[in-house]
TrEMBL record:
It comes from Hyella patelloides LEGE 07179. SUPFAM superfamilies: P-loop containing nucleoside triphosphate hydrolases, R3H domain. The keyword Cell inner membrane does not apply. InterPro entries: AAA+_ATPase, P-loop_NTPase, PTPase_dom, R3H_AAA, R3H_dom, R3H_dom_sf, Spore_III_AA_AAA+_ATPase. Residues 518-582 form the R3H domain. Residues 358-411 are annotated as: Disordered. Residues 385-401 have a biased composition (Polar residues). Keywords: ATP-binding, Nucleotide-binding. The keyword Ribosomal protein does not apply. This is Single-stranded nucleic acid binding R3H domain-containing protein.
């Protein structure tokens, strides 16, 4: 651990508190003005039928002994700006925020009056990073000061570094209420957003219409906003944004926002690489370069953790290692201290790695000695080969006398992995499902060492020898209706007792495409969104865009995964899919 000090700078605070207090009823105003901690006030809470509260950093105080009436709330509402779709309003030329709570009839029955302060000097801890021109993401719990820091960064970039800065101000928190922005943002320009759900569109509009060098965005919270942020970053524009979440580790686990730090994907390693890494065959890796090159975790107002290389930090986290941290703090005199802590292995990873020599991949499949057997399952092959039954019987006699099953306990005490003997099912499809979903299943051609048989339903029906052999070895047979990815996925999950019809399965597009090119992924994503956003919730059929026969087949399989029906209609090249509700 090393420590160093960098430049100091005193903080200056401007809050226009008197403008917020002017909207309050006289009885509450008197109580606030007489309070000894008035300058440290955070917010005033007014709920119908309750005593008004004043909230400070370390305490909450009741303001008087009279409960709030409808007249008190109306008195405040008449003196603030218009409430938007997000139930927020402000006071013109200030940074204060008034948030409303409504009843079912739409009437306001509660107000949260938050004091907005322009704090100059908050970013002294990361000013060196701001000046690099790289995109910066600020993380932290609500109230830790993310928006305050964002406002200061916008001013520094616009005034001190003479950059063209555009602020996407969805709730008017950064630049204040009204048409004229607050002086705290300096020369930076502000674009307001009519409705919160349109924020991603305004982000793109800002880049296309106003040629900014820097885009400042508060509260990135949806998948569309994350995609818009990536588009902006790829155009060479510096991004400075915030997102809710205490740490990068939390952000990685958030499927909506993980793209901000590059996204995560499961990768299947070869046997040699898995042994070299001393890990499982399926591991998590970063999918793409992070949208934000630098990430800052705001633990407290004056204590931040800085990750100067987000990509390296994410890669380290995915390997189960606690990344090296750079903790920056500032004291009351504005002096900044930097503490460097080295990376450390996570405790669970240390345990797992110490056990790896005895629990690593083993057996015939891991050593490369297990070769795929040809499928004798089709009727056509049986007709072409008169010795089919003899070949079938001999294929069950392949022994592995020296193989030792590798077993670890599952979540309910089961023995994992499960060794299955596939019959009449495409091995590549089985391995694709097992690899993508990271299922604890091993394929084997040793009947004595198998735990179960998985076969096409038609093969089980027409071949009594198959049923007899399984019976002699006391093995259950799991039937697959058809040789498709959804059917194979469903049977394998049932075999592991993972399939719950009341719980929707996570859909992984890699199950339905082998090439994984952009056109196929786009077509599958179109089908997924149609099912999840229209067909299932609204019960309406949906027609998709025209696609090739190959892509339509993938879409059909994806729809089957949701237990829905679909068909193709129209003439080529306009033939397309129609999806029906259950």
């Amino acid at each position: 651990m090393t420590q160093e000090k960098i430049a100091s700078h005193r903080m200056q605070i401007t809050d226009n508190l008197e403008k917020l207090l002017a909207i309050l009823p006289e009885t509450i105003l008197t109580q606030v003005n007489s309070h000894s901690q008035k300058d440290n006030l955070i917010e005033i809470v007014m709920d119908l039928g309750r005593l008004p509260e004043a909230r400070f950093h370390n305490e909450v105080t009741y303001l008087g002994e009279s409960t709030i009436t409808k007249e008190d709330i109306q008195h405040c509402v008449e003196r603030v700006g218009m409430f938007g779709a997000d139930n927020r309003a402000g006071i013109e030329r200030t940074l204060h925020r008034i948030s409303a709570i409504r009843n079912r009839a739409g009437e306001i029955i509660g107000l949260t009056c938050r004091i907005g302060r322009a704090v100059f000097g908050t970013i002294v801890m990361i000013r060196d990073l701001v000046e690099t021109g790289q995109s910066i993401l600020l993380l932290g719990r609500p109230g830790v000061g993310k928006t305050t820091a964002l406002r200061e960064i916008a001013r520094v970039l616009a005034d001190d570094l003479n950059k063209r800065v555009v602020i996407i101000d969805t709730s008017n928190e950064i630049a204040g209420d009204g048409d004229i922005p607050h002086p705290a943002i300096g020369r930076a320009r502000r674009m307001q957003v009519a409705r919160p759900e349109l924020q991603h569109q305004v982000m793109i509009e800002a880049v296309e219409n106003h040629m900014p060098e820097v885009i400042v965005i508060d509260e990135i919270s949806t998948e569309l906003e994350a995609l818009a942020a990536r588009t902006i970053a790829e155009r060479g524009v510096q991004l400075v944004g915030t997102a809710h979440g205490n740490s990068l580790a939390n952000l990685v686990k958030n499927p909506t926002l993980s793209d901000l730090v590059g996204g995560v994907q499961a990768v299947t390693l070869g046997d040699d690489e898995a042994r070299r890494r001393r890990s499982q065959k399926t591991v998590l890796e970063r999918k793409a370069p992070p949208t934000f090159a630098i990430a800052v975790e705001m633990l407290e107002r004056q204590r931040w953790v800085v990750h100067e290389d987000t990509a390296e930090t994410i890669d380290t986290l995915l390997r189960g290692i606690e990344p090296a941290t750079q903790i920056r703090t500032v004291n009351d005199n504005g002096e900044v201290s930097v503490i460097h802590e080295e990376a450390q292995l996570d405790a669970n990873t240390l345990v797992n790695r110490s056990m790896t020599p005895s629990l690593g991949p083993g057996g015939w499949r891991a050593s490369g000695k297990m070769n795929p057997v040809a499928s004798f399952g089709s009727k056509r092959k049986k007709k072409q080969n008169p010795q089919f039954e003899q070949m079938l019987e001999s294929s069950w006699q392949t022994q592995e006398p020296h193989s030792n099953k590798l077993r670890t306990p599952g979540p309910n005490g089961e023995d994992w992995p499960v060794y299955i003997y596939p019959y009449g099912i495409g091995r590549s499809q089985l391995e694709q499902v097992i690899g993508v979903l990271d299922l604890p299943i091993m394929l084997t051609k040793d009947l004595d060492g198998a735990d179960a048989v998985i076969a096409l339903r038609s093969q089980i029906k027409h071949h009594s020898r198959l049923r007899q052999l399984a019976k002699n070895h006391h093995l259950p047979i799991h039937a697959v209706k058809s040789n498709t990815i959804p059917q194979i996925t469903r049977v394998l999950r049932q075999l592991l007792n993972l399939d719950d019809p009341n719980v929707p399965e996570a859909t992984d597009m890699r199950l339905f495409t082998k090439a994984g090119n952009d056109d196929e992924i786009e077509a599958l994503e179109e089908a997924r969104l149609a099912v999840e956003q229209i067909v299932i919730p609204q019960g309406q059929p949906v027609e998709l865009l025209p696609r090739s026969a190959k892509v339509r087949k993938m879409q059909h399989e994806l729809v089957e995964h949701y237990r829905l029906q679909s068909d193709s209609f129209g003439e080529e090249p306009n033939r397309r899919l129609r999806i029906y509700p259950a």
